[in-house]
Amino acid sequence: MKLLSFRRPDGTPSFGRVDGDRVVDLARDGGPTSLRAALAAGMAFDGTGPVHALADVVLLPVIPDPAKILCVGHNYETHRQETGRAKVEHPSIFTRFADTLVADGQPIIRPRVSGDLDYEAELAIVIGRGGRAISEVDALDHVAGYACFNDASVRDWQWHTTQFAPGKNFPGTGAFGPYLVTPDEAGDLSDVRVVSRLNGTVMQDQPVRDMIFPVARIIAYVSAFTPLSPGDVIATGTPGGVGAKRQPPVWMQPGDRIEIDIGRIGTLTNFIAHEETLA
């Protein structure tokens, strides 16, 4: 099953189930009005409702309003090596803010204060059942589904200090979509490849199985220090090949097209826009 958040043709926000080239609108009066609320309510998502053509709705980030966005740094050996980071026993975790998110088809915004905008193709986890101190054995039972994520990074601001937060939280830099794929449809992701393409050129390409800390381990670790809630998002890290570590560096420029392709999880496509042109 594929689920998504969107704006109806009249502009009101909703959520629904993808059915070919249509979306079944599942928001109800008196019921959940967002995908996050529907996950919290334990909704089955197999109901009926008004049908819209996908072409007639405007996509929103998969979860437009997550309470938490947690990101894993240096979670592929190729990326750890290209950044020169030491091997660690625990995942490196940092946070994003919900107001940085943009949907499939929306522009990723290069800020006016920097030209060092980099791509990061990532598999995102969406939590379906919350919990604290979740065991690795039970962790996958807490997953509502998976989505594509582009953890676009403003590198010079990321490197001002050892803290990542500034470079990871400029508005319009966290692309998330196009939809959530439930675990039954996603299946075994081990051989699914995380790929980024910049203007059609492959920049990153590595299978999910190459994560240093796999999905279950990440959920167990994160939930040990913070409660997870339905709709929380965890971005699981990017493979090697980022623009900052190329010679010369490759930065995303206004007008560029960046795609994050994770096989049956979908393809997330965004163009780059300069902040000043959107003011």
From TrEMBL:
| Superkingdom as given in the UniProt entry | Bacteria
Under the GO molecular function aspect, what terms does this record hold?
hydrolase activity
The chain positions of domain Rv2993c-like N-terminal read: 1-61
Describe the location of the Fumarylacetoacetase-like C-terminal domain by residue ranges: 68-271
Q: Which UniProt keywords apply?
A: Hydrolase, Metal-binding
One of the Pfam families matching this protein, by short name = FAA_hydrolase
Which InterPro entries does the record match to this protein? FAH, Fumarylacetoacetase-like_C, Fumarylacetoacetase_C_sf, Rv2993c-like_N
Instruction: Please state which protein family the record places this protein in.
Output: Belongs to the FAH family.
What's the protein name?
Answer: Fumarylacetoacetate hydrolase family protein
Organism field = Sphingomonas floccifaciens
Taxonomy of the source species = Bacteria, Pseudomonadati, Pseudomonadota, Alphaproteobacteria, Sphingomonadales
